[in-house]
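Need residues for this backbone.
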């Protein structure tokens, strides 16, 4: 609707622009209602699941640079902490495999949502089949985190609140494991530099997780097993590769700004 408004203005159709602007405002107001203050998280649906990989997917693919649930929004970062913390308990892989073959730490493996029963191979059957981490879901968290760090650098400051403290100060691997107080930190401050550095490392751990569990010769399937980490589901899922390319582009932008 925002893009429709801008396009209508470009064409000189102010009536259509006003209509699209009103619909955009209505949608923005509705989207804001998905914030669940009690759970300190964006809610995936208003009458169903609270946490879901649709949250980071929506942040990336719905970003209009208007600040509404952007990557650096403290509500977004609070939601990420909750999402990651839940997946630690969801998959035994996250409890067993915490480092790669060289001993470097791995992120939480991220799937679609808790209780998923689609395993990529069988007809979904509650009680008989179990969902797994997805490469694209793990990658989208990395991309969003890279984008958050980039946004902070462009803004020149970070405002630490009770909400984003959940991610910044939460224990690893769901959080960054920092101990930063609430306040606004300029880009020259040690706190700013630590947060940006740890956000980058946090995202890198997700990419490392994907690399570690990728199929032979760097093929990316749909999913990787919740217990063993071996690739399964659809072979060479296009979206898995697209998510990795998009995450890499976000990382390259961050690197250029950090140089």
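Answer:
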């Amino acid at each position: 609707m925002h893009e429709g408004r801008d396009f209508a203005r470009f064409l000189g159709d102010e009536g259509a622009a006003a209509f699209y602007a009103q619909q955009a405002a209505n949608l923005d107001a509705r989207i804001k209602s998905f914030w669940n203050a009690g759970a300190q998280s964006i809610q995936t649906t208003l009458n169903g699941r609270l946490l879901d990989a649709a949250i980071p997917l929506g942040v990336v693919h719905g970003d209009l640079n208007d600040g509404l649930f952007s990557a650096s929004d403290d509500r977004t970062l609070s939601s990420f902490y909750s999402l990651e913390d839940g997946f630690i308990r969801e998959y035994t892989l996250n409890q067993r495999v915490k480092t790669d073959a060289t001993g470097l730490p791995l992120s939480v493996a991220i799937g679609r949502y808790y209780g998923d029963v689609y395993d990529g191979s069988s007809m979904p059957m509650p009680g008989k089949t179990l969902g797994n981490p997805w490469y694209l879901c793990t990658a989208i968290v990395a991309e969003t985190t890279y984008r958050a760090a980039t946004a902070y650098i462009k803004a020149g400051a970070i405002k630490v609140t009770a909400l984003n403290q959940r991610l910044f100060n939460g224990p690893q691997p769901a959080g960054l494991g920092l101990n930063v107080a609430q306040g606004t930190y300029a880009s020259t401050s040690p706190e700013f530099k630590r947060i940006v550095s740890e956000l980058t490392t946090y995202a890198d751990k997700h990419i490392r997780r994907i690399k570690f569990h990728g199929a032979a010769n760097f093929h990316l399937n749909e999913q990787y097993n919740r217990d063993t980490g071996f690739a399964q589901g659809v072979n060479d899922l296009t979206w898995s590769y697209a998510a990795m390319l998009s995450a890499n582009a976000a990382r390259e932008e961050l690197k250029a700004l950090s140089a």
